[in-house]
Amino acid sequence: TYGAVRGRRLVTASYSILNCCYKMKEDTMIQVYTNKENYQYDLHSLIKAFYPERDVKVHGLEQISRAEERGRITVSFEEKALHVVLAVQGGKVRVYDNPIETDEEEGTGVHLYKNACKLALYRDLCDYTGRTLPWGNLTGIRPTKLPMGMLAEGLSDEEIMHRLEETHAVSEEKSSLSLDIAKREKALLDTIHYEDGYSLYIGIPFCPTTCLYCSFTSYPIAMWKKRVQDYLEAVYKEMQFVAEAYKDKILDTVYIGGGTPTTLEAGQLDWLLTKLKNTFDWSQVKEFTVEAGRADSITPEKLAVLHQHGVTRISVNPQTMKDETLKFIGRRHTVAQVKEAFAWARGAGFDNINMDIILGLPGEMEEDVAHTIEEIKKLAPDSLTVHSLAIKRASRLSQWIEENGMETLHNTDATMEIAAAGAAALGMKPYYLYRQKNMSGNFENVGYAREGKFGIYNILIMEEVQSIVALGAGSITKRVFPGGRIERCDNVKDVGLYIEKIDEMIERKSKLLGME
Hints:
Blueprint: E1 9-11, H1 15-18, E2 29-34, H2 40-50, E3 55-60, E4 72-77, E5 81-89, E6 92-99, H3 108-129, H4 145-153, H5 157-168, H6 172-189, E7 197-204, E8 206-207, E9 219-220, H7 221-224, H8 228-245, E10 250-258, H9 266-279, E11 287-293, H10 300-308, E12 313-316, H11 323-328, H12 335-348, E13 353-359, H13 366-379, E14 383-388, H14 396-404, H15 413-425, E15 429-434, E16 445-449, H16 456-463, E17 467-471, E18 476-480, E19 486-490, H17 495-500, H18 502-512
Parallel strand pairs: 2-3, 2-4, 7-10, 7-17, 8-9, 10-11, 11-12, 12-13, 13-14
Antiparallel strand pairs: 1-6, 4-5, 5-6, 14-16, 15-16, 18-19
Helix pairs in contact: 2-3, 4-5, 4-6, 5-6, 8-9, 8-18, 9-10, 10-12, 13-15
């Protein structure tokens, strides 16, 4: 039954139970107490999905204190039941007693028990808040992994849809979307070398400015101009090591991201790409992507360098086609510059251009999204990546929301549908999907593309079926072992430290890649 939960029973709370709580301001904090330490991450993610505007902290049940009842949730996992006390919204207190049919035992039993408990808690939260979530109780960033696994089991479309809806309460719309994408991904991944191949990522952690919503490793290029070449030399040293370590493996895809790679001058790009092409065997590379990114970093000279070196796919990312929003989020370029940069890219000969947009930016409503989509349709890119705004704690946006409130972010089914319809009008189909923590509207990011223009690297980074070796500050290498086990090693985020400790970064890779 895949952890079906039946016979949920609402129990009236007694005042004695309410005394077991934690004192905290209701408007700012939710304290969660549980008797299962290894489930704390799942509890945090699911409760945060219902209360994105609140801070959520999870503790062991033994840490519970006698205090006022507000701002407290307790979740007690028992052998045949899940007991939940919700006291978050004002004086609204409810206690739920959920019978659980599956046992907690070794192997698959633990997985089924956990799924059953998550489903029970999700339904309790739905009842308590009066709302549902489009992805049900799924809190992971790769929801397509579930239908991908079910396809491998040989399940039919109907069986997969039923399992997603019954086991995880995923909406019919999202179940259909994830299944559609999973089938498309599977067909594309059939052409990839898994065990005897790899992909390469190179991070350029510089940007013209830092956007309001950004938490990636990026540094203002103006402050680092004198050290850019030192950084590139360090990246080249990593290149040489990886090329030797993986000389017997096939390089499938290459992706240069950031930051904003086109903050590099044309000559610096030429130097980097020349070293790259001369260091690795390029004979079987299927895709070579460079995020041209922000319009205020793109010039015809830089685009000519990228095209000359055989870059097959680039991005020109507006995020929105509303000048007021661009200025507010710190993009420092105009809609007119986006259109100009796109025209330059077409003129340079690029026939696979992606554009990124973000739904849920502060102050933007359905009409703003519709305007952005109409402007993008006029440009006719080859792919469109639609992001739902994710609120990162390390971004300036997080502080701004604390001061102005979550209601300033407006992402709805309607805005998602406007973007999807625009992609369909451009002849695009959804081909990859991922989610992030604290996404506006609890939605997702979806990549759309025309036939033959799908971003292979994007699928690989999401599905984690091939090793991806990452170079540069703040990048993370993932080695996929036979059987699916994954191990990681990361490079330091600070550019200065990365340059200084490049030999240590290479030694980390050496251990991970089995060179010692």
